Prior knowledge:
The structure is a single chain. The protein has 2 domains: 2-142, Jelly Rolls; 145-224, Orthogonal Bundle (Arc Repressor Mutant, subunit A). It is built from 8 helices and 11 strands. It has helices at 2-9, 19-28, 106-115, 117-143, 146-159, 175-182, 186-199, 214-218; strands spanning 30-34, 46-52, 55-60, 66-72, 77-78, 92-95, 99-105, 162-164, 167-169, 202-205, 208-211. The radius of gyration is 18 Å and the shape is globular.
Amino acid sequence: MDDKVRFLRRLNLFEGMSEEEVEAVARELRMRRCAAGEPIGGRGDHVYLIKEGRVRLYMLSREGQEVTTAVLVPGQLFGLGSLLGTGAEPSFAECVDGCYVCEAGAQDFLAILAKHPLMMAKVVMAMARQIFRLEETVESMALESARARLARHLLRLAETGAADPEGRLLPPQTREEMARVITSSRETVSRALAAWNREGVIATRGRRIVLRDPAALTMELPEGR
């Protein structure tokens, strides 16, 4: 319980709440470990908070192809569509690497939100961002090239990246994972990254990428958006 409480205290979601309030929330959340590749959820009536590791959200096309809509990192929520009793979010989630998630039933989570209006406002904002991202992903699949989709993906990763003397150090992600996210091939991803590396847009540091020139990636998007 102590470890879970310490984790929750660090999150912006619980900012402004007293220690007793955070502990009360922690008691409502059940923590479990998931192995790499393990599906998470599936019942559609739970909300999940990532404590450690990464989780991939995806949906299936009519042809049965997996279309990744987001790769979430610690501190992010998913399963929020269950709060509305709708399938407003991607239907599937899987652990990318070994991860820990905290979960609560939708009704229990709603009861928590009812007691904490500020937390409720932050959850609503998270829901709006995820719905926007889903719409953006569907639109980009139809209108953007693979290179543009990769540029957009790197810009998204930069939002949760760490500050670095050269720019933003992106969260770790393999070429295969990037290809899956943008629904393309590993070769296409490698060619684009190599070109941007030569142009000084990115730099590689081991298996990590440093985004040095986000404006250049923005120009890869349709109409620079």
